[in-house]
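#random but structural
TW: two for the price of one
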Amino acid sequence: MTRPGHGTLLDLARLFLKLGTLGFGGPAAHIAMMEDEVVRRCGWLSRERFLDLVGATNLIPGPNSTEMAIHVGNERAGWRGLIVAGVCFIAPAVLIVLACAWAYTRYGTLPAAEGLLRGVKPVIIAIVLQALWGLGRTATRMRLLALVGLLSLAAVAAGVHDLAVILGAGALVALVAWARLGAGRGRSNGILALPLGAAALASTATGVAPFGLAPLFLTFLKIGSVLFGSGYVLLAFLRADLVVRHGWLTESQLLDAIAVGQVTPGPVFTTATFVGYVLGGLGGAAVATIGIFLPAFVFVALSGPLVPWIRRSPVAGAFLDGVNVASIALMAAVVAQLARAAIVDPWTATIAAVSAVLLLRFRASPAWLVPAAGLLGLVLPR
């Protein structure tokens, strides 16, 4: 690990402010962009180490891409880097969502973003495909892992829950490793205690309460502590707590909040910023944002030291290999879904194809591909 230093922290801040500003497309795209910067361009982590951290983020609740940023910061510069990388990745999206929330409460409408996203989405597909190519070759270095990856992809396509696929793949590979050792001496995987402990927190859900900043904070703290899965899972949690249980939002307001989280860059969990502002102004935005993201910092700080131990243990390391290959399968499933929504006409197909060539053949940087495609999307004929 690099020793914490002023220059190191500045490098982390610059990188994750950039990624937080350009990070359209959800966790799969964010992780792909991080892999391009952290592994290919900066050389801060090996591809194997990066994959281990991807696997670790899938075993704990919270926003995966934010947790990856926190992990990278921790690897690069200890606890200072952990805080700097996480905050800098989140901050641009929070500011953009705040602007959207201000416009929404003032004018009752959302800023138009269809043209911008029309150009950006095909580039995101190419970025994720580039990452899948590199990470997939590393993750499937053995026939068993390639087979488990295919089984994981089939399970995701069949509708099996993401967490079940991840844990199932890890358990299968660990069982094979345990059988090969022949003595059953594999130690338990300590990192599994984190999701189990987080799930237990669900029983501490806040009950019906009048609106206030403290209940708002506790509601989002609970969501950030127990939520596994995609933005659609976040929608279900928000609806259960904010619409059904507390009655703080209407169905229409909730859908508008989710839409803002989807069309702005950075982690979709900044939906909490929008909701908090609509309900309680700047104070509400602050407590909702802190509440939903705080568990990610805590879980990464707790789980990070376990990753090297897991890798050293034959059985636990095999479990992590299975988790890694299942994580790649999840990314592949996501990019297939995104491609159907992103490539809708010859223009978007051309943008995706040209972006793929520029990324894979000429190693172009997503830092200029994403904004260039966004501008192109604004002027393309409908």
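TW: number two ↓
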Amino acid sequence: MRRAYDVAAVRSAESRALGDLGDEALMARAAAGLAGHIRGVLTAARRVVVNGDVALIVGAGNNGGDVLYAGAELARRGARVTAIPVFDRAHEAGRAALEAAGGRVHDIEAESDLPRAIQVVQQADVVVDGVLGIGGHGSLPEPAATLVRAASGGEAFRIAADVPSGVDADTGVVEAPESTFQADLTVTFGCLKPGLVTSPGREYAGAVEVVDIGLGTYLPPVPIARVLQHADLAEYVAGPRPNDHKYSRGVVGVLAGSARYPGAGVLTVGGARRSGVGMVRFADRGDGVGEAVVRAYPDVVLQHDPPADDPRVSTWVVGPGMGHGRSEERWLQRVLAADVPVVLDADALRMYVGSEDVRRQVRSRSERGALTVLTPHTGEFAAAFGAVGPQGRIQSTREAAEQSGCLVVLKGSGTVVAGQRGAAYLDPIAAHELATAGSGDVLAGLLGGFLASRAARQSSSESARCAAAAVYTHGLAARLAAADDRPIVATDIVDAVADAIAVLRRSA
């Protein structure tokens, strides 16, 4: 599992580490790690390092110093390295080291110096961004903005040092997209930063690699966010135990779909039954959806009585395509009367927003310790809690969880999962192919299945991790379905869930 820390925690850790190790040691470690990744890029591109052209766009602070020292190491190995300072000064010791190693510095002292700097950037094999680092955000000043745009328009491989300039390291907020560095790879120092994993920052970060510079013992025990990896999902995708039976593996109840949207019921059930549970029970409201579900999945059990506190059901999933009138609200309230986890998606979220009675019932569930999961996309989140503000998706999700008493899954690029306590979880694996009708229905079913399994716990932190595991599996399924550039639809994601779980089991 990767842990992400905010800028305040990183600054505090760096300050303590500097007292024990010294500034030179931290910078040397960062520079060595960055140089190693640049050499790897040159080698992967089948270029001989001695012939590689590396352009460094450097600011005045330690981020620029890290990049200059990395450039010095590359120059000593024969690379042609040119640094372009974009402020009135650069890190003096780093600049001296680069020049002593044979690297060049192209200062922009007059407007006439800028065209040559642009040419250096556009003709490089690798361009490295060392303008701002973790302390920077907002639009870049000139000439940095011009050089960043030149890098984006060229063919060079683009590497950001620590954080792409223009991306807020804490929130991922990008205020000026046109002048934000678009990295193919971000080499971040000491630990992962949340802005690299959540939207929109993740779209500018590219692949993210963490270089260990010795901050581990100085960082706080609880990060601002956690990021799951394959191996972290072992307990959520484990197969049945020898003494298991269908009820011990968990039972998901599904209340979804309608005569207008029968497919939503089918897709939600599809996600739930592939999650590894022992049974899926479908609440049949007599509108023909139950028949469609059973035709697609004969193993599903139809439940014709109102879905009250059925002791066989471990978790309920409510909302996809079911409608949101008074009749539907009464069905939802029957489910909310149960003390098992309930996932509210799509139309159930609309009822949550539109009905004070539903919100009161959800809050009552929280007070008695029953878990409710809300799964809004950005528009639904805005309707329920207000638009995601400048504080970013992580903090907005945490505030929504506190306000609602629920576990909140804010869907999108870099889905955020947060409860009332503990670290949030960020999804690193979501595929763009998830932007297809019905994929959210599949996720709702998967969430219900993972929460219903024996791995699910009732505590906020364990439930958040379990929900994050479902989100991760959903994204992996989409990636597998879309392999070899295949276009996919929601049913392809359902079909690929079993393959995703098999991959995760092998990674355990």
